[in-house]
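Morning - thiamine diphosphate inputs below, output right after.
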Amino acid sequence: MSFITGRKFINQEALPHMWCQGCGNGTVLSALARTFEQLKYTNEDTVVVTGIGCWGKADDYLTTNALHVTHGRALPFATGIKAAKPELHVVALMGDGDGTTIGGNHFIHSARRNIDITAIIVNNLNYGMTGGQFSATTPHDAITATTAFGNPERPFDVCALAEAAGANYVARTTIYNGRLLRSSIKDALTKKGFSLVEVISPCPTQFGRRNKINPAVEMLRSLRDKAVTKDVFDKLSAEEKDNHILIGSLVNKDAADFNTRYEEIRSKALQK
Ligand SMILES: Cc1ncc(C[n+]2csc(CCOP(=O)(O)OP(=O)(O)O)c2C)c(N)n1
Ligand code: SF4
């Protein structure tokens, strides 16, 4: 009997990884490597594009083709790769700072373009790598290095943003919900068009410590207790919804992707 381990996609020479104890990044990396194996992807036909941040280091630990680019710019680079080489599987790995704050504009336009890229945003609610500053997903009132007495801003709903902009596939999960994490990554990778998997993940070192959700296992318990599927979420009051995490597949449709539309227009232009 053989088991799916994802081992051939993990660069053993780069281990041990740099992530803190209790960080969720390793769980997401393992789920991604296993799904690559399950889908029979190869190192040659897969490209991982990362921005800057703790999660942005993920490409160091993968054996696939990789492009490590500037902060917030993973999606434009991924777009260029997919437009030029549609046969490749292109995956953009971004933190919430990378993908929705400094890179927020690229995020909505990639979804609008519906280009066939899978974006995996590990949302740990702050800028982990640079010391725990607030990001566009930091909850209202949360304590961060730059909101020492509480965050006056409201967070983006990353999935709602992707849906409104036109993504074909949108799912949210947490690192506690391991099976959903794997199945969401698989569905996202196999869906044509722009796909988003938002993974709510603990950053015990920066976010947990400041918001008194520690040790790391407390962050996992909190994810377990807060994550609910749509049937439960819909019955909650507005106030309760603020304190829960809606998980599951939220959008799954088949609008034509960018490369298909581009080819249609190109062939029309060639006939003139
Ligand atoms: C243009 C630019 N601005 C700021 C930085 C500094 N910087 C590096 S990582 C980072 C935050 C990363 O946070 P996030 O994307 O949420 O990833 P995490 O570290 O939490 O995984 C920042 C602000 C940078 N490298 N480049
Ligand atoms: S600082 Fe936070 S996000 Fe970065 S490795 Fe540590 S726990 Fe993970």
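Note: The first strand starts at residue 46 and ends at 50.

O.
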